[in-house]
Amino acid sequence: MPRSGEFSASQVAELLLNVLIFESLTQRQLKKLSKSVEVLEFQAGETIVKRGEEGGGLYLVLDGTAEVRRGSRILARLTVGQFFGEMSLFDSEGRSADVVAVRPSRLALLTRGKFWKFADSEPSVLRNALREMARRLRQTDLTLPE
User: N or C: which end of the chain has fewer CB within 10 A?
Assistant: First the structure.
């Protein structure tokens, strides 16, 4: 089971700057958003999310490494500043892949509820979120066999 970990709001805000869906946010907005996340720790080999389970939020890698897997196939390797789960900010459909910590890792979790509370007060975040989701869908589409 994940455990809460120590990570300052300013450290989280700094990494949020690298997340494309948050790139247009001001320092004030980033600091506000960073206070909405929960920092979780995972050990090597521990499952962060499981394919098919209901998605509940976006994860941002603060330190460590995680792999996105579908069966035995590795779809992506995520390191500091990278994120996954952005689609679950918009719906509660099942996760499309497993994500497993490759080594001890700390991740920030932004739940759907906290995201929408923030988006209600800062609607510019929605434009960038949709742009990034479209980019990722196009990238995935290119990797699928015809």
Answer: C
Q: In the structure encoding, which two tokens stand for residue 24, read together?
A: 């247009």
Alpha-carbon distance of 58 to 110, in angstroms, equals: 5
β-sheet bridge partners, residue 38: 109
Instruction: Tell me what pLDDT residue 24 has.
Output: 78
Q: Kind and range of the H or E element at 75?
A: strand 73-78
pLDDT per residue as tens digits for the range 80-125: 989 998 888 888 888 889 999 999 999 999 999 999 999 998 887 8
The arithmetic mean of pLDDT across residues 122-134, rounded, is 79
The domains of the chain are located at 3-112+120-143
Contact 68, 97 (CB under 8 A): yes
Which pTM value belongs to this model?
0.81
- Spell 48-83 as b/e; 16+ CB within 10 A means b: bbeeeeebbbbbbbbbbbbbbbeeeeebeebeeebb
Q: Look up the CATH number of domain 3-112+120-143.
A: 2.60.120.10
